Known about the structure:
Blueprint: H1 9-19, E1 26-29, E2 37-38, E3 42-43, E4 53-54, E5 58-61, H2 63-66, E6 75-83, E7 97-101, E8 113-116, E9 145-148, E10 158-159, E11 170-172, H3 180-188, E12 193-197, E13 201-207, E14 211-212, E15 223-224, H4 227-238, E16 241-248, H5 252-262, E17 268-272, H6 282-287, E18 328-333, E19 336-337, E20 341-347, E21 352-357, H7 361-379, E22 389-394, E23 400-401, E24 407-415, E25 420-423, H8 432-435, E26 440-444, E27 450-451, E28 456-461
Helix pairs in contact: 1-7, 4-7
Amino acid sequence: MSSSAIWSVDDHLADILASIRPLDPIELQLLDAQGCVLVEDVTVPVALPPFDNSSMDGYAVRVADVQGATEEFPAVLTVIGDVAAGGDPLPLVGPGQAARIMTGAPLPPGAEAVVPVEWTDGGSGSGPAAAMRPAGRSPEDASGEVRIHRPAAEGAHIRPRGSDVKAGDLALARGTVLGPPQLGLLAAIGRGTVRVRPRPRVVVLSTGSELVQPGESLGEGRIYDSNSFALAAAARDAGALAYRVGAVTDDADTLRSTIEDQLIRADLLVTTGGVSVGAYDVVKEALSAPGPPAGGAAQDGGTGGEVSGDGTGGEVSDGGEIPGIGGGIDFRTLAMQPGKPQGFGAVGPDHTPLLALPGNPVSSYVSFELFVRPAIRTLMGLTDVHRPVVRAVLKADEPLASPPGRRQFLRGAYDPAAGTVTPVGGSGSHLIAALAHADCLIVVPEAQTSAEPGAEVEVVLLG
């Protein structure tokens, strides 16, 4: 890429992902591993279920003893005891006998089928039973007689040993994201810990002396800090552990000090605001790498191309490290709208990646979706790091204008049933209310200056 080039969206993203490596695996307790990516195949050490067990509350019987049973001519069997899940030693079911059995309890020896309690009189001597009476209040039901009104085939209402998974089967493959069902399976096969890549720790800092925390009074010329909340929530949605830092004032030393303090708990740093060309763009002031010595030639910034510290396409230098935090950030101009100014690099002794996003709410959020989310997913060790992309027919009253040479991202509402997408709000990068009602981004490519109603467009799904 030449020193005067403006970065494309694809090149900027490729540069970021080329610099990000998945986090090292660790062993975690099951609940701590929720949302993490498995790094090993997990095989089943014992069959599930580990024994033949009943799928119904009822009676364990021999098939021959209930053959031909009807409500008019029931099979009358002697009840020899109860079989409860995790209960006492199992009774032997002989000819003319039955054992009262509960759901999940092991099938006693001699039994070949389970008759649901609704097919019996429940030992009451009257009509069909609706349920079993509690053992504590009716212990006599574990003995005496039961009348069975219907026959049962061999294996009826029995869950055979290994019918879920067999010993040696693959339970979960490496690369699986561990959600509640997966953690339940791991617990069911006896795993107390699992080896995973941990969820990335993402620290979000918003910058600007004008920012006020929600809940506080809003003075003249002040606005509430919304970006840090939106981006921290987006980081969590992507699978990260997110830490939100209150707004940092427009002071370079304060920002550098804050970043230095946060490095201890960050696998990725995200700043929002202060990356444009204004006199108070503190992120650029604080995080631009120092220039070369007087008379020296500017050098490659080392993070993927020669771009200028003011985002206009000139050369950037890595002539020195940032005081206190080391490293340096490339500030770039991207051929996109919103989100033209961007920054990327690494800081701190562990070369923690840092992405500097614009401050306008829509620019910030769109930038997060395009660049930060894939970085988080890469740290997690996932292979599919991008949002789903579909094609849809544009449903609009007028053409959507787009600046030449830039990839435009407009908020939209996607209707999957109709295969259409409708713009939500205008193109202004400050229109956060419209963003709250959008569920996708409508993409207008760099080569187009408009998208006509009825045209098929690319849509990035956000939810």
